[in-house]
Specification:
This protein is an all-alpha fold. Helices cover 72% and strands 0% of the residues. It is built from five helices and no strands. It has helices spanning 3-25, 42-64, 69-87, 90-95, 103-124. It is globular, with a radius of gyration of 16 Å. It starts with a helix and ends in a 5-residue tail after the last helix. The mean pLDDT is 96.
Length: 129
């Protein structure tokens, strides 16, 4: 496996570990919490923290076996599409104040899309052995 791809996947593992810990402990900071300034229930964040552990396992497995990379990329791509859907939803708008901007959520969605794009590029344009 190309080193840049492996490094990108392992960096994603580290990122998802941090995200999981932030959700578990309710540390609502941008980058680790997409919707950091919206109302929430603590139990929801615990559930999210456990779900994010699946990303940790998937991206770690992908860093060890190139055959797993397409699955990791597909999951991250669907996540980005899901965040786009939430960002555009009436459900999100209904919990925001009138003057509360959505650009922080879009910025974080774009960051995750960027990670997907970089990893996809590393995968698709890797040297073929």
């Amino acid at each position: 496996m190309p080193q840049l791809l492996r490094l990108g996947l392992l960096s994603s593992v580290a990122y998802f570990i941090c995200m999981s810990l932030a959700h578990f402990f309710g540390i609502k900071v941008p980058v680790l919490f997409v919707y950091f300034d919206t109302p929430y229930y603590a139990y929801q964040d615990k559930v999210i923290s456990f779900a994010v552990i699946s990303y940790v396992g998937l991206f770690y497995a992908a860093s060890r076996d190139i055959k797993v990379v397409p699955s990791a990329l597909a999951v991250l791509g669907v996540t980005v599409l899901g965040l786009v859907s939430v960002n555009m939803s009436e459900a999100l708008a209904s919990v925001l104040t009138e003057d509360q901007p959505t650009w922080p959520y879009w910025l974080q969605t774009a960051m995750l899309a960027g990670i997907w794009l970089v990893l996809t590029g590393f995968f698709l344009f890797r040297p073929k052995a």
